[in-house]
From TrEMBL:
It is a multi-pass membrane protein. Keywords: Membrane, Mitochondrion, Mitochondrion outer membrane, Nucleus, Phosphoprotein, Transcription, Transcription regulation, Transmembrane, Transmembrane helix. It holds the Pfam family FUN14. It comes from Nycticryphes semicollaris. The keyword Metal-binding does not apply. It is found in: Mitochondrion outer membrane; Nucleus. This is FUN14 domain-containing protein 2. The gene is Fundc2.
Length: 147
């Protein structure tokens, strides 16, 4: 009785992963939707965890930013009231009116640049292809903001 030797192809995973980072496989536009790669539970879990982490960080950073801006404004008001600084209100009013005019000019055109439009289209395509992942992220984000 003769023993037949089978030939196998060996795939070196270390070399393969060096040439293909994980983020390129997951988020590359040509890679298709995540529904083709992961099951629904995995997509919800990935989206939920990343959304919760993002929401939690946004909540903490938002509180810190609000405290810093409010505290800075409060200190400026105290300094103005006590006479440490003097505000030229006519100059402030002139600059605010100039900013209003520029905002009116830019908002009247209502045209997006081609670069911005192409990026928005890419994001919309990604969101449509990965609805479950996006839904998990949105839910996790809201939970992160609430916690």
């Amino acid at each position: 009785v003769g023993v037949k030797e089978d030939s196998f192809n060996v795939l070196d995973l270390a070399e393969y992963t060096k040439n293909r980072p994980w983020w390129r496989k997951v988020f590359a536009p040509s890679s298709g939707s995540s529904a083709e790669k992961f099951n629904v539970a995995t997509q919800l879990l990935i989206g939920g965890v990343t959304g919760w982490c993002t929401g939690f960080v946004f909540q903490k950073v938002g509180k810190l930013a609000a405290t810093a801006v409010g505290g800075g404004f409060f200190l400026l008001q105290i300094a103005n009231h006590t006479g440490y600084i003097k505000v030229d209100w006519k100059l402030v009013e002139r600059d605010v009116n100039k900013a209003k005019q520029q905002l009116k000019f830019h908002s009247s055109s209502n045209k997006m640049s081609p670069e911005v439009k192409s990026k928005v289209d890419e994001v919309i395509i990604f969101l449509k292809k990965n609805v479950i992942l996006t839904g998990g992220f949105a839910g996790g984000f809201l939970l992160g903001m609430a916690s």
